[in-house]
Amino acid sequence: MLTRHHTHTQVAISQLIWDRWQLDFLFKFLVIGSAGAGKSCLLHQFIETKFKQDSNHTIGVEFGSRVVNVGGKTVKLQIWDTAGQERFRSVTRSYYRGAAGALLVYDITSRETYNALTNWLTDARTLASPNIVIILCGNKKDLDADREVTFLEASRFAQENELMFLETSALTGENVEEAFLKTARNILNKIESGELDPERMGSGIQYGDSSLRQLRQPRGSTAQTKQQCNC
Ligand SMILES: Nc1nc2c(ncn2[C@@H]2O[C@H](COP(=O)(O)OP(=O)(O)OP(=O)(O)O)[C@@H](O)[C@H]2O)c(=O)[nH]1
Ligand SMILES: [Mg+2]
């Protein structure tokens, strides 16, 4: 039990030890895109499973995390929610380095946020990593009557730029969990196929002890029951 004698540092260290023991992997994620697209609401919906009422513009960067089960692996997503406003650009850019995955968000009711996608994409690939796994999220799917960007147009853009694509609603929760899980699953697949190397500096991926224990097991002793994926 934690007492008030525990310092913040002690608590942080206990968390680190717990993470290392329980987790297979830790992935660094970014949420990027124009101001007002709904990035903070998407993160809030993913972590708290509710809509964030009265969301204000993010100042700089906010942080959230959640442990998920993907393909039988326990993965902690460490998510940096960045400010879309231009005046914070130099601050937010400094958080990109070494991210393994990103949600690139636009608002389906705002062509302006859609037109800015190419710039966000260039930033992500040059500042985070060329191998970063990105999912394009057309948010505010619930506001279909005010739509300015069609599903078809955005899915073509996604295809041309090798992005995964989903339309989401941080308000109803539709496709929100899917967006994060799809990205995590894609990263895991790339680790398994050897396309991504978690040992590479700045990969945005860390091993937890759980996968290290499995790696150390002699061949033939790894007959585990295959867990059901929840995505
Ligand atoms: N109808 C609807 N409104 C949404 C949705 N997601 C966000 N909003 C609204 O859009 C506005 C902006 O949402 P935020 O999440 O703060 O936007 P942001 O992308 O974080 O903006 P910055 O932090 O400035 O970059 C808020 O008024 C939200 O209530 C959605 O899925 N549907
Ligand atoms: Mg925000």
TrEMBL record:
Q: Which GO terms describe its cellular component?
A: early endosome membrane; plasma membrane
Q: Which CDD domains match?
A: Rab4 (cd04113)
| Gene3D superfamilies noted in UniProt | P-loop containing nucleotide triphosphate hydrolases (3.40.50.300)
Presence of the UniProt keyword Transport in the record: yes
Q: What is its main location?
A: membrane
- GO-annotated molecular function: G protein activity; GTP binding; metal ion binding
> What is its subcellular localisation?
Cell membrane; Early endosome membrane
Required cofactor names: Mg(2+)
Identify the InterPro entries for this entry: P-loop_NTPase, Rab4, Rab_GTPases_membrane_traffic, Small_GTP-bd, Small_GTPase
Report the PROSITE patterns cross-referenced here. RAB, RAS, RHO
Keywords from the UniProt entry: Endosome, GTP-binding, Hydrolase, Lipoprotein, Magnesium, Membrane, Metal-binding, Methylation, Nucleotide-binding, Prenylation, Protein transport, Transport
Q: Which GO terms describe its biological process?
A: protein transport; Rab protein signal transduction
- What does it catalyze? GTP + H2O = GDP + phosphate + H(+)
The question of whether Transferase is a record keyword is answered with no
Regarding the membrane, this protein is recorded as:
Lipid-anchor
Q: Which residues form the signal peptide?
A: none
**Record family assignment:** Belongs to the small GTPase superfamily. Rab family.
Function comment: The small GTPases Rab are key regulators of intracellular membrane trafficking, from the formation of transport vesicles to their fusion with membranes. Rabs cycle between an inactive GDP-bound form and an active GTP-bound form that is able to recruit to membranes different sets of downstream effectors directly responsible for vesicle formation, movement, tethering and fusion.
User: What is the name of this protein?
Assistant: Ras-related protein Rab-4
